[in-house]
Amino acid sequence: MLITMIAYTDGMIEDRYRALLIFVLFTLNNGFSWLMFDPVAGWLEENMNGVTVGQLQVLSSWQPLMFLIMFIPVMKMVTGSDGLRKAVRLGASCEMIGAIFKIIGSLSRNSYAGFVLLHIGQIFSGVGSPVATGCVSALSAAWFNPNERTRATAAAVLSNSVGNSLAYILVPAMTESSSFVCTTVYEFVMATIAAILVWFLFPTQKASVVSGGIVEILPVEGTPSEDKSLRKQLFNLLSVPSAVFLLLIYSWSSGGFSAWVSLFDATYDDFFTESFIGFMSFSGMLAYAAGGLVSSCLTDLYFRRQMKYVIFFCITCNSVSNLLFVALAPNNDGYSLHPSGRAWIVVVTALCGFWNGAAAPLFYELIAEISYPVDEGVSGVAVSFCENLGALFFYQVVSRFYSGQSMSVAYSFGMTVAVVLSAAVRQRYIRSYHMYLQSSQQLASMSVVSVDTPE
């Protein structure tokens, strides 16, 4: 029956959309697994042996930490023959194994061994993080035409944030109605579905060709990228000042944002209930995904050569929203500069997420443009590396030096610096220009062949 269903689905959906949908399901579950402990931090501290606030921060830090360990091997894999499919298979399989460890750990919550198994499970989930968030540029470049790539990148990037937001709604609901075991079982079911789809339905990698004056996507059985040294590609990427500026900005705007939102429970637990904090976090992360989808559609249609200005506008609006959040949210003593009620706090949190997410997919595309001929697999993983580095820095450094409202002030200050830094970015669309020249040359060659061919 499974084979019949797979064979039927194989012919239903166009290959590029099938690749995107399967990748979206995988990265959505990866995002869920990253933040599945934060929404029920209080419950875990009370009901699980060995769990403390510090240990919960370590559990949330495993994903960015494993990213730092695994991003080089994933880069090498993605730039090889049919590397994208191999990388997604690795990530989906590790996610499923990690979910099994977490089920056993949650069942053994009264013993210290159960707590250790949660850590092991989160480590396995973290192995897939450089695939889930770092291979989005490679996916869009391999499967989609230039006028569709920003939207494809956005769908792949932002599904991880949708997984984050689902954690804030589903985890408390499942834990309160049953136990944390229910949450881990849900993760395992989703991970198993994703793994089956990846292993049996994820298509072989494609390559762009020109045919009859139209850019099409035709199948090839493992088309390797040019034989380039990974070290040289990284050097070329980091030798472009504008690319470095964008990487630094993204590390704070996206990585810092995810960590900041996930720490709301520790920041505002004295003033708000756990359910309200979960709703705050959910609104921020869901708006993050919505912002990215809106901006990617508008950019593909109207602003394909003005990505820098779109990024500048979005992070400026985000900085203003952050300042509004600081004014509305209670400080460490419970007072607000402008008390306006909880509804406005939720609205402003959503605004922070919307403008932040609106800029997110454009970082991947603009860095791929200005760093060309660096492979998209390398530039995309580098962008995601910086995101995870920013999250890890926020978890392990910022949160230790700043607590309560001071943490929100620190994040807002960092976003103000990011706005200034974005003004120094010089946008260049080298990849698009190269593709235009290549297409023109191939069309000219085909015209010559058709003229020389006897009737």
UniProtKB/TrEMBL annotation:
Keyword Kinase part of the UniProt annotation: no
UniProt KW keywords: Membrane, Transmembrane, Transmembrane helix
Compartment(s) where it occurs, according to its Swiss-Prot or TrEMBL record: Membrane
GO cellular component: membrane
InterPro entries for the chain: FLVCR1-2_SLC49-like, MFS, MFS_trans_sf
Membrane topology: Multi-pass membrane protein
Record keyword Transmembrane helix present: yes
Gene3D superfamilies: MFS general substrate transporter like domains
Domain of life per record: Eukaryota
One Pfam family per UniProt: MFS_1
Gene Ontology MF: a single term: transmembrane transporter activity
TM helices/strands, residue ranges: 20-37, 57-75, 87-104, 116-140, 152-171, 183-202, 234-255, 275-298, 310-329, 341-364, 376-395, 407-425
Name of the protein: MFS transporter
Organism of this sequence: Trypanosoma cruzi
